[in-house]
Design brief:
single chain, 165 residues, globular, mainly alpha
């Protein structure tokens, strides 16, 4: 059963990663469409890819990964770092969705620098996750103070404008 779950997780991660890497190249084509029909076709393709392909794959990747956590009881510092990178992929996924909403309004465009940046960030996240999973490096454990009740509140207090001094 775990092997099937792992295979599902790997396939979903691969598809989600491919989507995050490919969508910016579709966005940058917004500047090169000539007619209203071409713009409508590009918008339909981008929305279909994001809503019907990439988003379900992201859900399956996260759900199957969560199931694997409980099935395998993985507790290691490298795994915590991997989860942080997955959080980065999730954040990039949400930003990608916001681009889908805004990009096809009248006069909008997707600059080349943003295409390069989005592609590099996605590639760095995917490669970082891949390296962590395959290498399983021996990272130092987090300080014990992080696991004390209220530690996150104390750590983030200087950044919170509503925190009482």
């Amino acid at each position: 059963m775990i092997e099937i779950l792992k295979a599902l997780h790997i396939a979903a991660i691969a598809g989600w990663s491919a989507g995050l890497l490919c969508l910016p190249s579709l966005y940058v084509q917004r500047c090169h469409v000539g007619s209203r029909d071409e713009l409508h076709r590009l918008q339909a393709l981008v929305r279909f890819a994001y809503i019907n392909l990439v988003s379900p794959l992201a859900f399956v990747a996260v759900a199957s990964g969560t199931a694997l956590i409980f099935a395998r009881s993985v507790v290691a510092p490298w795994f915590a770092l991997k989860l942080a990178l997955v959080l980065g992929m999730s954040f990039l996924h949400v930003l990608t969705g916001l681009v889908v909403i805004r990009l096809f309004r009248e006069g909008e465009r997707y600059p080349t620098w943003r295409f390069v940046l989005a592609t590099l960030v996605a590639a760095a996240l995917v490669l970082g996750i891949l390296w962590l999973v395959l290498a399983k490096p021996a990272l130092p454990p987090a300080p014990a103070a992080f696991f004390r009740p209220g530690a996150l509140q104390n750590l983030l207090a200087p950044l919170n404008p509503w925190a009482t001094p």
